[in-house]
């Protein structure tokens, strides 16, 4: 085999951007040089790596097989270069997709701790719901994901970061706010505002009430937790939200956590990454820092 790292970098850039011209711009190459590198790689391997779908370049079956292996080789080459250039051994960029709760309450501490211990690491963060984070890791948009709840996709590895609880909340003036406990029948009679389908919080809540409540009256579904909290605080609605997101509002008596004995909604926040991806020192660094932060948090 005589393929070069440049050819693999061109292949990976086209896969990421879906376009030869955008890949050329990313790599600071001419479009003709980028096309030539791809053609040479495909000729050498004897297989087409892309097919055109409209204006986009989409990976073929062979391209999908090659991509994680190419990314692994490129990552190792970067570590070799950084090591010989006298930089920290754990250096480089990592793309992370995180669900809302983890991004707002846990990831800032993770970034701060990493900045302190590994100053050459740069974390590129995007916030999406759990379903989209999983899709992003599978599509190679993220090298590491942080999700709520379980992920059963056999293509991914999952490591628990910490546990969290969900709470059914009402506004202080809601009739249920004065009750010592609330039954499932009363929940079924209420109006609800909830996270959208695909959110980890929504999936756990739906699983918890499955078989107990047949027709839930969901008035609104929104992605933004701040909107849901305000609607519950000011209106006649109930919601189910992570304790991490509502504990301060509960302490300030802006929201009331309802006691629902029949519901147990413990969940876990986890790191996920592709099973077939190569060993990544930067990813391993974040996993280790996450464990350290959780040990400190558990002692508080």
Automatic annotation (TrEMBL):
InterPro entries: LysR_HTH_N, LysR_subst-bd, WH-like_DNA-bd_sf, WH_DNA-bd_sf. One of its GO terms (molecular function) is DNA-binding transcription factor activity. The keyword DNA-binding applies. Residues 1-60 form the HTH lysR-type domain. Keywords: DNA-binding, Transcription, Transcription regulation. It comes from the Bacteria. PANTHER family: HTH-TYPE TRANSCRIPTIONAL REGULATOR, LYSR FAMILY TRANSCRIPTIONAL REGULATOR. Belongs to the LysR transcriptional regulatory family. This is DNA-binding transcriptional regulator, LysR family.
